[in-house]
Design a protein that fits this description.
19 helices; 9 strands
Length: about 475
């Protein structure tokens, strides 16, 4: 079993090192894995008993699987009404497959290849072979508690998807949709407050001077940051809605931002605006995280960027399949805008209508790509998904929302707290980028000397509760 744990062991002993940033095969390619940039720290994993990775694999993931099984069971009548006996049999099959997965996880069984053909099946199975190649001969097969946490957590969600697509005619069922919708509806009052604020800003935007625009930009960035607290994978699928008006809390939350690089973002975008000729564009890409309230905060920020002419077009990136409980898919994106548009609240409705217009005009573009649901860290994107990397290179600024994106940006590794963000990116630099993230994993870089130690003394779980956040920039200063 995993070894006993008192404090994150890499905080006590920094000498552990393993292969650097990993590369499996490219999308559609047939080559094997290679390793680059050796000398990076070891991956976070469940082998450290008591660590957040360990507790996630031991407790949170089984809880999420149990909720998925319960959700399927509660919909059995609906499946029967829609599909007859085939629906009933499909529900039983999906539950059986998810129960088997839960048992494999809880008994630390070897991780098995995927069998159902999907666009990423070969890439995943080759990645499994790559993980096998990292083990010593005596280690056997990759297992849940002994493999990199990022890999096994992504693998679990991909196995949920496999269980569903193996169970037609319910093979398009999203086991997380109810939770995502609930988050949106329970956050209604906060969403109304945010939409009301945005409408007031947009109406007055031509009369705002540069300092007022800057203050508003900073305000909406912080709202987008704290919107990231509404994460259903952190809560194990339990409700995680925003019940209070977040705008009123920003001043008291400001000291909880450990790295705040908003000045750099403002300088970059205002320089783009000043040097932009009428025909040229300023493009901001937003790599989305959670749907529901957090997605609203991201869309409000995107609306402001267009209205203030800090950007001329926004590209959003979401997941191709249901992921980490509450991550945004195209269905979630479209559903939310439709809900906003049809709301009986005037400001919500106005926002929804405006956002639909942006999409129809091509000023907002939604894109998805299978890379976002692969287990790879982002430093291999240029090799694994060169088309996606080339697309990101067209952006003037990329905003990466949330904790999972931060883990993939930094490789989910045991970095020193003071290691520069640029170094932890391991060569991933498609364009200037900023991570907007509340801390929900035992990884954070770019802190000042002594800063982390202050929190460790008084708050042992400061890295994982979502209480603290960062707006962390990498690019030309």
């Amino acid at each position: 079993m995993p070894r006993p744990f008192s404090a994150p062991p890499w905080r006590r002993n920094r000498l552990s090192r393993r292969r650097g940033c990993d590369v499996s095969v490219g999308v559609g390619a047939g080559s094997g894995a290679v390793a680059v940039m050796a000398g990076t720290p070891a991956s976070l994993s469940g082998r450290d008993e008591g660590s957040f990775a360990y507790l996630t694999i031991k407790d949170r993931i089984p809880q999420i699987l149990t909720k998925a099984i319960d959700t399927l069971h509660r919909h059995k009548n609906e499946f029967f009404e829609k599909h007859g006996e085939k629906g009933t049999e499909a529900e039983k099959k999906a539950i059986s497959l998810l129960s088997k997965l839960r048992n494999e996880l809880q008994t630390d069984k070897p991780i098995i290849p995927f069998v159902e053909k999907f666009v990423d099946t070969d890439i995943w199975n080759q990645y499994l072979e790559y993980q096998q190649s990292l083990l010593n001969e005596n280690d056997g097969k990759p297992r849940w508690f002994y493999s990199p946490w990022l890999f096994v957590e992504c693998y679990m969600y991909r196995r949920i998807h496999e269980a569903i697509i193996q169970s037609p005619p319910i093979d398009d069922f999203d086991v997380f949709k109810e939770s995502k919708d609930q988050n949106f509806f329970e956050s209604r009052e906060s969403i109304i407050a945010l939409c009301t604020h945005l409408q007031e800003v947009v109406r007055a935007i031509e009369d705002l001077d540069e300092n007022q625009l800057k203050d508003e930009f900073f305000r909406l960035l912080q709202i987008s940051l704290w919107g990231n607290k509404c994460d259903l994978s952190l809560s194990g699928g339990d409700t995680s809605s925003q019940k209070t008006n977040i705008i009123n809390s920003l001043e008291e939350l400001k000291p909880l931002i450990l790295v705040n690089d908003t000045e750099h973002l403002w300088s970059l975008l205002t320089n783009c605006k000043k040097t932009r000729e009428k025909a040229s564009i300023t493009r901001v890409d937003i790599v989305l995280d959670n749907s529901g309230f957090e997605l609203v905060t991201d869309l409000v920020l995107a609306d402001f960027l267009l209205s203030s002419q800090l950007a001329t077009e926004i590209h959003f990136y979401g997941k191709m399949i249901p992921w980490f409980v509450s991550d945004t898919t195209i269905h979630d994106f479209n559903w939310l805008i439709e809900q906003m548009k049809e709301s009986d609240d005037k400001c919500m409705s106005q926002c929804g209508a405006a956002w639909e217009t942006y999409i129809n005009m091509g000023r907002w573009v939604y894109q998805d790509h299978i890379f976002w649901t692969l287990p790879h860290e982002f430093c291999v994107m240029s090799q694994v998904a060169p088309g996606l990397y080339a697309e990101l290179q067209k952006a003037h600024l990329i905003l990466f929302k949330g904790d999972l994106n931060y883990r993939k940006l930094t490789g989910d590794r045991k970095w020193e707290f003071t290691v520069p963000f640029h170094q932890a990116l391991n060569g991933f630099h498609p364009a200037p980028l900023c991570s907007i993230r509340t801390l929900k994993a035992e990884i954070q870089v770019g802190l000042r000397p002594g800063q982390a130690e202050q929190y460790m003394t008084s708050e042992p779980n400061w890295l994982t509760t979502g209480k603290y956040g960062v707006l962390q920039f990498d690019g030309p200063l």
